[in-house]
Design brief:
The protein is α/β, with parallel strands linked by helices. It has 3 domains: about 100 residues, NadA-like (Rossmann fold, 3-Layer(aba) Sandwich), CATH 3.40.50.10800; about 80 residues, 3-Layer(aba) Sandwich (Rossmann fold); about 70 residues, NadA-like (Rossmann fold, 3-Layer(aba) Sandwich), CATH 3.40.50.10800. It has 14 helices and 12 strands. A 4-stranded parallel sheet has the order 2-1-3-4, sandwiched between helices. A 4-stranded parallel sheet has the order 6-5-7-8, with helices on both faces. Strands 10-9-11-12 form a 4-stranded parallel sheet, sandwiched between helices. The protein is globular. The structure holds 1,3-dihydroxyacetonephosphate and iron/sulfur cluster (SF4).
Protein backbone atom coordinates (compact mmCIF):
# COMPACT_ATOMS: atom_id res chain seq x y z
CA UNK A 1 0.00 0.00 0.00
CA UNK A 2 2.83 2.38 0.78
CA UNK A 3 4.75 1.60 -2.38
CA UNK A 4 3.27 4.50 -4.40
CA UNK A 5 4.53 6.88 -1.73
CA UNK A 6 8.08 5.50 -1.71
CA UNK A 7 8.63 4.38 -5.30
CA UNK A 8 10.00 7.62 -6.73
CA UNK A 9 12.58 8.09 -3.94
CA UNK A 10 13.61 4.43 -4.04
CA UNK A 11 14.18 4.50 -7.83
CA UNK A 12 16.19 7.73 -7.50
CA UNK A 13 18.31 6.41 -4.62
CA UNK A 14 19.13 3.17 -6.46
CA UNK A 15 20.18 5.19 -9.53
CA UNK A 16 22.23 7.68 -7.46
CA UNK A 17 24.02 4.84 -5.66
CA UNK A 18 25.24 3.53 -9.02
CA UNK A 19 26.22 6.99 -10.28
CA UNK A 20 28.11 7.92 -7.11
CA UNK A 21 29.53 4.44 -6.48
CA UNK A 22 27.90 4.59 -3.04
CA UNK A 23 26.68 2.05 -0.51
CA UNK A 24 24.08 2.53 2.20
CA UNK A 25 24.72 1.07 5.65
CA UNK A 26 21.52 0.89 7.70
CA UNK A 27 21.00 0.22 11.38
CA UNK A 28 18.29 -2.22 12.50
CA UNK A 29 16.22 0.75 13.77
CA UNK A 30 15.72 2.22 10.30
CA UNK A 31 12.20 2.08 8.89
CA UNK A 32 11.33 -0.86 6.58
CA UNK A 33 11.41 1.12 3.33
CA UNK A 34 15.02 2.10 4.10
CA UNK A 35 16.03 -1.20 5.68
CA UNK A 36 14.54 -3.46 2.99
CA UNK A 37 14.47 -1.31 -0.16
CA UNK A 38 17.65 0.78 -0.47
CA UNK A 39 20.25 -0.55 2.00
CA UNK A 40 23.30 -2.61 1.02
CA UNK A 41 24.38 -3.62 4.51
CA UNK A 42 22.10 -3.83 7.55
CA UNK A 43 22.81 -4.79 11.14
CA UNK A 44 23.61 -3.77 14.69
CA UNK A 45 26.33 -1.27 15.62
CA UNK A 46 28.96 -4.02 15.67
CA UNK A 47 28.03 -5.38 12.23
CA UNK A 48 27.99 -1.88 10.75
CA UNK A 49 31.48 -1.17 12.16
CA UNK A 50 32.79 -4.52 10.91
CA UNK A 51 31.25 -4.18 7.48
CA UNK A 52 32.46 -0.59 7.16
CA UNK A 53 35.97 -2.08 7.06
CA UNK A 54 35.20 -4.09 3.93
CA UNK A 55 33.37 -1.46 1.87
CA UNK A 56 34.87 -0.95 -1.58
CA UNK A 57 32.63 1.91 -2.77
CA UNK A 58 33.82 5.55 -2.85
CA UNK A 59 30.92 6.84 -0.77
CA UNK A 60 29.26 5.47 2.37
CA UNK A 61 25.83 6.80 3.36
CA UNK A 62 25.04 6.02 7.00
CA UNK A 63 21.35 5.42 7.57
CA UNK A 64 21.77 5.62 11.30
CA UNK A 65 23.01 8.18 13.80
CA UNK A 66 26.06 10.41 13.89
CA UNK A 67 28.34 8.21 16.02
CA UNK A 68 27.79 5.35 13.53
CA UNK A 69 28.82 7.59 10.65
CA UNK A 70 31.89 8.70 12.63
CA UNK A 71 32.86 5.08 13.27
CA UNK A 72 32.53 4.32 9.55
CA UNK A 73 34.73 7.35 8.79
CA UNK A 74 37.34 6.29 11.36
CA UNK A 75 37.61 2.94 9.59
CA UNK A 76 37.54 4.52 6.11
CA UNK A 77 39.53 7.74 6.37
CA UNK A 78 39.90 8.03 2.59
CA UNK A 79 36.24 7.55 1.71
CA UNK A 80 33.43 10.08 1.72
CA UNK A 81 31.01 9.33 4.55
CA UNK A 82 27.64 11.07 4.42
CA UNK A 83 24.92 11.33 7.04
CA UNK A 84 21.53 12.40 5.66
CA UNK A 85 20.79 14.51 8.76
CA UNK A 86 23.57 15.96 10.91
CA UNK A 87 21.14 16.35 13.82
CA UNK A 88 20.70 12.57 14.12
CA UNK A 89 22.47 12.33 17.47
CA UNK A 90 22.14 10.05 20.50
CA UNK A 91 21.34 10.77 24.15
CA UNK A 92 24.21 8.48 25.20
CA UNK A 93 26.77 10.19 22.97
CA UNK A 94 25.58 13.58 24.24
CA UNK A 95 25.94 12.58 27.89
CA UNK A 96 29.74 12.65 28.13
CA UNK A 97 32.74 14.68 26.98
CA UNK A 98 36.43 13.94 26.56
CA UNK A 99 37.15 16.04 29.68
CA UNK A 100 34.74 13.82 31.68
CA UNK A 101 36.70 10.74 30.61
CA UNK A 102 40.02 12.32 31.59
CA UNK A 103 38.57 13.17 35.03
CA UNK A 104 37.32 9.59 35.52
CA UNK A 105 40.71 8.20 34.57
CA UNK A 106 42.45 10.55 37.00
CA UNK A 107 40.06 9.49 39.80
CA UNK A 108 40.64 5.76 39.13
CA UNK A 109 44.29 5.38 38.07
CA UNK A 110 45.16 2.12 36.33
CA UNK A 111 41.54 1.07 35.71
CA UNK A 112 40.92 0.42 31.97
CA UNK A 113 38.38 2.59 30.16
CA UNK A 114 35.88 0.76 27.95
CA UNK A 115 33.76 3.15 25.93
CA UNK A 116 30.47 2.22 24.34
CA UNK A 117 30.54 2.85 20.60
CA UNK A 118 27.62 5.29 21.14
CA UNK A 119 30.06 8.16 21.80
CA UNK A 120 31.85 10.91 19.90
CA UNK A 121 35.27 10.35 18.35
CA UNK A 122 36.69 12.75 20.98
CA UNK A 123 35.47 10.45 23.78
CA UNK A 124 36.69 7.34 21.98
CA UNK A 125 40.11 8.99 21.67
CA UNK A 126 40.38 9.09 25.50
CA UNK A 127 39.53 5.38 25.84
CA UNK A 128 41.49 2.15 25.93
CA UNK A 129 38.98 0.32 23.79
CA UNK A 130 35.42 0.42 22.56
CA UNK A 131 32.57 -2.04 22.87
CA UNK A 132 29.06 -2.47 21.48
CA UNK A 133 26.09 -4.16 23.11
CA UNK A 134 26.90 -7.19 20.95
CA UNK A 135 30.39 -7.72 22.38
CA UNK A 136 30.47 -5.84 25.72
CA UNK A 137 30.71 -9.02 27.82
CA UNK A 138 33.56 -10.42 25.76
CA UNK A 139 35.43 -7.10 25.74
CA UNK A 140 35.17 -6.70 29.53
CA UNK A 141 36.23 -10.31 30.15
CA UNK A 142 39.20 -9.91 27.79
CA UNK A 143 40.71 -7.33 30.15
CA UNK A 144 40.97 -9.74 33.08
CA UNK A 145 40.67 -6.93 35.67
CA UNK A 146 38.49 -6.69 38.81
CA UNK A 147 37.26 -3.21 37.87
CA UNK A 148 36.48 -1.47 34.60
CA UNK A 149 35.45 2.09 33.84
CA UNK A 150 32.54 1.43 31.47
CA UNK A 151 30.97 4.54 30.00
CA UNK A 152 28.65 6.27 29.30
CA UNK A 153 25.69 3.86 29.57
CA UNK A 154 24.99 3.22 33.23
CA UNK A 155 22.47 0.46 32.51
CA UNK A 156 24.64 -1.41 30.01
CA UNK A 157 27.51 -1.25 32.51
CA UNK A 158 25.33 -2.56 35.34
CA UNK A 159 23.90 -5.34 33.15
CA UNK A 160 27.38 -6.43 32.03
CA UNK A 161 28.69 -6.10 35.59
CA UNK A 162 25.99 -8.55 36.69
CA UNK A 163 26.92 -11.02 33.93
CA UNK A 164 30.67 -10.86 34.46
CA UNK A 165 31.07 -10.09 38.18
CA UNK A 166 33.42 -7.23 37.26
CA UNK A 167 33.06 -4.04 39.36
CA UNK A 168 31.79 -1.28 37.09
CA UNK A 169 32.69 2.36 37.49
CA UNK A 170 30.20 4.01 35.21
CA UNK A 171 28.49 7.23 34.14
CA UNK A 172 24.90 8.46 34.36
CA UNK A 173 24.25 8.29 30.61
CA UNK A 174 21.04 6.63 29.43
CA UNK A 175 19.44 5.79 26.11
CA UNK A 176 16.29 7.89 25.96
CA UNK A 177 14.49 5.04 24.17
CA UNK A 178 15.35 2.13 26.48
CA UNK A 179 15.28 3.96 29.83
CA UNK A 180 11.49 4.39 29.43
CA UNK A 181 10.61 0.68 29.64
CA UNK A 182 9.51 -0.57 33.06
CA UNK A 183 9.26 -3.99 34.73
CA UNK A 184 5.50 -3.41 35.26
CA UNK A 185 5.02 -2.97 31.51
CA UNK A 186 6.62 -6.38 30.87
CA UNK A 187 4.51 -8.09 33.55
CA UNK A 188 1.37 -6.58 32.01
CA UNK A 189 2.37 -7.82 28.53
CA UNK A 190 2.84 -11.34 29.86
CA UNK A 191 -0.67 -11.26 31.34
CA UNK A 192 -2.24 -9.87 28.17
CA UNK A 193 -0.27 -12.15 25.79
CA UNK A 194 0.27 -15.51 27.49
CA UNK A 195 3.30 -17.39 26.19
CA UNK A 196 5.01 -14.29 24.76
CA UNK A 197 8.82 -14.45 24.75
CA UNK A 198 10.34 -11.16 25.95
CA UNK A 199 13.61 -9.99 24.39
CA UNK A 200 15.21 -6.87 25.91
CA UNK A 201 18.10 -4.68 24.83
CA UNK A 202 20.88 -4.30 27.47
CA UNK A 203 20.50 -0.51 27.34
CA UNK A 204 17.30 -1.13 29.37
CA UNK A 205 17.45 -0.70 33.16
CA UNK A 206 18.64 -3.91 34.94
CA UNK A 207 15.22 -4.38 36.58
CA UNK A 208 13.68 -4.52 33.07
CA UNK A 209 16.33 -6.97 31.81
CA UNK A 210 15.61 -9.11 34.89
CA UNK A 211 11.97 -9.48 33.73
CA UNK A 212 12.99 -10.54 30.20
CA UNK A 213 13.64 -14.05 28.85
CA UNK A 214 16.63 -12.93 26.79
CA UNK A 215 18.87 -9.86 26.64
CA UNK A 216 21.05 -8.93 23.70
CA UNK A 217 21.99 -6.46 21.01
CA UNK A 218 19.64 -5.83 18.12
CA UNK A 219 21.54 -8.47 16.09
CA UNK A 220 21.24 -11.00 18.92
CA UNK A 221 17.48 -10.34 19.07
CA UNK A 222 17.25 -10.77 15.33
CA UNK A 223 19.13 -14.10 15.51
CA UNK A 224 16.88 -15.27 18.34
CA UNK A 225 13.74 -14.53 16.28
CA UNK A 226 15.27 -16.26 13.21
CA UNK A 227 16.07 -19.35 15.30
CA UNK A 228 12.32 -20.08 15.41
CA UNK A 229 12.40 -20.73 19.18
CA UNK A 230 9.37 -18.48 19.75
CA UNK A 231 5.99 -18.14 18.02
CA UNK A 232 5.09 -14.92 19.80
CA UNK A 233 7.67 -12.28 20.76
CA UNK A 234 7.95 -8.79 22.13
CA UNK A 235 11.12 -6.78 21.49
CA UNK A 236 11.82 -4.31 24.27
CA UNK A 237 13.58 -1.82 22.04
CA UNK A 238 13.04 0.72 19.24
CA UNK A 239 9.85 0.35 17.15
CA UNK A 240 11.27 -0.28 13.69
CA UNK A 241 13.09 -3.41 14.83
CA UNK A 242 9.80 -5.37 14.98
CA UNK A 243 8.56 -3.86 11.71
CA UNK A 244 11.71 -5.04 9.90
CA UNK A 245 11.69 -8.53 11.43
CA UNK A 246 7.95 -9.00 10.86
CA UNK A 247 8.59 -8.68 7.11
CA UNK A 248 11.16 -11.48 7.29
CA UNK A 249 9.18 -13.73 9.66
CA UNK A 250 5.50 -13.48 8.71
CA UNK A 251 4.53 -16.52 10.80
CA UNK A 252 5.83 -15.06 14.07
CA UNK A 253 3.46 -12.87 16.05
CA UNK A 254 5.03 -9.59 17.17
CA UNK A 255 3.52 -7.73 20.12
CA UNK A 256 4.53 -4.15 19.46
CA UNK A 257 4.69 -1.75 22.35
CA UNK A 258 7.84 0.15 21.61
CA UNK A 259 9.56 3.50 21.94
CA UNK A 260 10.69 5.60 19.00
CA UNK A 261 14.22 6.97 18.68
CA UNK A 262 13.74 10.52 17.40
CA UNK A 263 17.34 10.58 16.14
CA UNK A 264 17.05 7.43 14.04
CA UNK A 265 13.74 8.70 12.68
CA UNK A 266 15.43 11.80 11.23
CA UNK A 267 16.74 9.54 8.48
CA UNK A 268 14.11 9.25 5.74
CA UNK A 269 14.08 8.25 2.07
CA UNK A 270 13.91 11.93 0.94
CA UNK A 271 16.84 12.75 3.27
CA UNK A 272 18.92 9.89 1.83
CA UNK A 273 18.04 10.96 -1.71
CA UNK A 274 19.03 14.55 -0.93
CA UNK A 275 22.32 13.39 0.62
CA UNK A 276 23.23 11.49 -2.54
CA UNK A 277 22.06 14.26 -4.88
CA UNK A 278 24.04 16.97 -3.10
CA UNK A 279 26.80 14.85 -1.53
CA UNK A 280 25.97 16.30 1.90
CA UNK A 281 26.43 16.20 4.81
CA UNK A 282 29.94 14.89 4.98
CA UNK A 283 31.26 13.54 8.29
CA UNK A 284 34.83 14.55 9.08
CA UNK A 285 37.01 13.92 12.13
CA UNK A 286 39.80 16.17 13.31
CA UNK A 287 43.11 14.46 12.50
CA UNK A 288 44.48 14.86 16.04
CA UNK A 289 41.55 12.77 17.36
CA UNK A 290 41.13 10.30 14.52
CA UNK A 291 44.20 8.11 15.11
CA UNK A 292 43.52 7.64 18.84
CA UNK A 293 39.79 7.06 18.34
CA UNK A 294 40.48 4.58 15.53
CA UNK A 295 42.87 2.65 17.76
CA UNK A 296 40.11 2.16 20.36
CA UNK A 297 37.71 0.86 17.70
CA UNK A 298 40.36 -1.37 16.12
CA UNK A 299 41.28 -2.90 19.48
CA UNK A 300 37.61 -3.83 19.89
CA UNK A 301 37.39 -5.34 16.41
CA UNK A 302 40.56 -7.35 17.02
CA UNK A 303 38.94 -8.94 20.11
P1 LIG B 1 22.91 -2.28 18.78
O1 LIG B 1 22.26 -2.32 17.42
O2 LIG B 1 24.39 -2.35 18.66
O3 LIG B 1 22.33 -3.30 19.68
O4 LIG B 1 22.62 -0.83 19.39
C1 LIG B 1 21.39 -0.37 19.69
C2 LIG B 1 21.32 1.09 19.66
O5 LIG B 1 20.63 1.69 20.41
C3 LIG B 1 22.09 1.80 18.67
O6 LIG B 1 21.85 3.12 18.76
FE1 LIG C 1 21.01 6.59 21.01
FE2 LIG C 1 19.09 5.15 22.14
FE3 LIG C 1 18.62 6.34 19.80
FE4 LIG C 1 20.30 4.25 19.94
S1 LIG C 1 18.13 4.23 20.34
S2 LIG C 1 20.65 6.18 18.84
S3 LIG C 1 21.23 4.55 21.96
S4 LIG C 1 19.06 7.38 21.75
Amino acid sequence: MEWALFEDDIEAILRLKRERNAVILAHNYQTPEIFHCVSDIVGDSLALAREAQTVEADVIVMAGVHFMAETAKLLNPNKTVLIPDMAAGCSLADSITAADVRALRAAHPGVPVVTYVNTSAAVKAESDLCCTSGNAKRIVESLGTDSVIMIPDEFLARNIGKETGVRMITWAGHCEVHERFTPGEIRRMRQEHPGVVVLAHPECPPEVVAEADFAGSTAHMSDFVASGKAEKVVLITECSMSDNLAVQHPKIEFIRPCNLCPHMKRITLPAIRHALETMTTEVTIEPHLADRARAAVERMLAI
